[in-house]
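Case study 2.
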Amino acid sequence: MKAVIMAAGKSTRTYPLTLTRPKPLIKVANKPILAHQLDALRGIADGIILVVGYRAEMIREAFGGAYDGIPIEYVVQSEQRGTGHAILQCAQHVDGPFLAMNGDDLYDSADLANVAREEQAALAMTVEDPRLYGVYEVDDGNRVVRLVEKPTEVFSHLANVGVYKFTPEIFEILRRTEPSVRGEIEITSAVQTLAERGVFRVVETAGYWLPIGYPWHLLDANAFMLKRMTPRIEGEVHPAAILNGSVTIGKGTVIYSGVVIDGPVCIGEDCRIGPNCYLRPGTTIGNGCRIGQSVEIKNSIFMDGAFACHLSYIGDSIVGERANLGCGTVTSNVRHDDGYHRSMVNGVLIDTGRKKLGAVIGDDAHTGIHTAIYPGRKIWPGATTLPGEVVAKDIVA
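Prediction:
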């Protein structure tokens, strides 16, 4: 059985991180989202079809023609005209039952296997507030009665998580499906057609589903994956460094004296950490990073080649590739009124649901010395700040 992974979207909600890469290549616990998905499909799918579009060449370069022995085919969706349209592009590449899944969320392998055993089905999870999702109504036999996108009335708590098992019948249904009000061909419309035929079921998750719709969702996914990692020490650790809990250190990395690491923490290859810095739980440091004297990092992601060399505090933040944080750069991550942080996304102020949130800093950004960054603010790739600057609004280069 093949698995179709929809990875063509531009993902504007995760700007500035996806200005320079497709979302499936963002790393969680030092592994691309797409690699986590392919690992979860091991033993379930014997072939992968990647539907690509936005920055497709980066995905091809990263994954090539196979992953861990599983062959990969690429299908280009030159116009992003909806999830159903993405599936339609694969009609000539599928000759039997197949899985289809979103390319930017993380799924439990056991749940994928359970859906794969069904003839035609979707994976769903019980959530507290279903109004944020597509929601299934099912009968006593878990057959789908209807699927409603972001309902105003709560009639079910079964949220659609973006994993489906289809037969080739779905292609003819999608060809006949009218575009939605957004002008897109939606998988959910085709699912409703299958439901009306009485042949489509729901499988409820027993494991995890980690949706990544906004940048701060990466922090949740990263913390979750770090708790599941197997610790290993492959670099050099000074005897005067202190490591507590689950810690992974890659090859070529040097941990200098006075460093304290409280796991779970994951550090990549060829990094220089310390002296006298503090890495707190939930932190991932990518490859080739430099974390120096008196730097404290908490529950954050540093992408490959990012530097914070002196006297900085980075909390609940994401720092892009090759970004350089000047001496004394500080992120604020807690409101004085103890309220939830809000962050601007596509011109709309979004409630993040988080009481702790720092900054989101794009690739190749540079901060001047003593830069102070308000909670939830973003700095675009390549942008800079002046010495002593207070970042009260997003810096869009």
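Residues 241 and 259 are 5 Å apart (CA to CA).
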